[in-house]
Design brief:
Elements lengths: L2 E3 L7 E6 L5 E6 L4 H19 L13 H11 L6 H13 L2 H4 L7 H13 L4 H20 L27 H7 L5 H13 L3 H5 L6 E2 L4 E4 L14 E4 L5 H10 L20 H11 L15
Antiparallel strand pairs: 1-2, 2-3, 4-5, 5-6
């Protein structure tokens, strides 16, 4: 008979029952009370019994691999603004790995946890492992809603990695004036805007001249690249700091198109542009840093 329980003081309820293959499994429930959890656990057990009797389709009958499921999500459900980076992330860490070759019934919590542990041994940071875990959970959630996969979400019980807290060095206001003359002219306005507003790369690439009110000293952050919204899904109006005004004015005057910080041909800069490299080079030229060490796990 199905039972309900809590796990190590974690919030929420879990159901423990025998699935259609005879295995004891544990599934997190969306219930807010123990009474509701018991009802949901009973329904899950009842469904498993119907599957065992052949009255409902077995979730384990899918021959789709995890790599194929990830590609389905990328092609159909991934937000456009994130598609490029998620395609690269899943392609490198899942689709080209032994985990990606597993059929969905064999993609268990243990298999995912073992794959993340192996990636950590190869040098990926805990935060990177957590991001991959979150993306895989989204893939399964969307697949379950679309009935592409009817089994459980195996990522639910994969524990998040502990991320050590680090103190990051940041530029002081007086260092910005020292830095900017060493930035390439074609990037100077964009770097200045990033430093004085904290906008993301996609938001800077998608900034239109009509979004900038120099007279009112206000700037509207309304999109990421050419998407309809920002990555956070909402627009924001932020003040323009006085030192930023001449850089925005120069960028608008120099731009041959509707974009404030376009590519050389006037088109919108793409996600492949690399302002981080430009900034690192300028920091070195300005003498603010002595240099940096790039560590590639594939080389090390």
């Amino acid at each position: 008979m199905a039972t309900v329980l809590r796990r190590d003081g974690r919030p929420g309820w879990y159901a423990k029952f025998t699935d259609a293959t005879g295995r004891q499994i544990r599934v997190k429930l969306p219930a807010e009370s123990k009474t509701e959890a018991r009802r949901q656990a009973f329904e899950l057990e009842r469904k498993a019994k119907r599957q065992a009797l052949g009255l409902e389709a077995m979730p384990g009958q899918s021959s789709m691999t995890l790599a194929e499921l990830c590609l389905w999500w990328l092609d159909n459900k991934c937000p456009a603004a994130s598609e490029s980076i998620e395609r690269m992330r899943l392609g490198r860490h899942v689709c080209a790995s032994p985990l990606g070759a597993l059929t969905l019934p064999r993609v268990t919590t243990e298999a995912i946890d073992a794959a993340l542990t192996a990636l950590e041994r190869d040098g990926i940071a805990p935060a990177t492992a957590n991001k991959l875990r979150a993306v895989l959970s989204t893939v399964f959630t969307r697949a379950r809603k679309a009935k592409v996969w009817t089994g459980p979400n195996p990522v639910t019980d994969v524990e998040a990695r502990k991320v050590p807290k680090r103190a990051y060095a940041t530029l002081r206001a007086e260092e910005v004036a020292v830095l900017l003359p060493h930035v390439e002219p074609s990037w100077r306005g964009m770097v200045a805007a990033a430093l004085w507003t904290g906008m993301r790369k996609g938001e800077l690439c998608g900034l239109l001249k009509s979004d900038v009110d120099l007279e009112g000293r206000m700037l509207t952050v309304a999109r990421s690249y050419d998407g309809e919204t920002t990555k956070g899904g909402r627009a924001a109006v932020i003040p323009i700091a006085e030192p930023l005004v001449p850089f925005l004015k120069a960028a608008i005057d120099a731009s041959p198109s509707e974009w404030v910080f376009p590519a050389a041909d006037g088109s919108m800069r793409t996600p492949e542009c690399d302002p981080h490299k430009v900034l690192r080079t300028a920091l070195g030229r300005a003498g603010i840093i002595d240099g940096w060490e790039h560590v590639c796990r594939r080389c090390k």
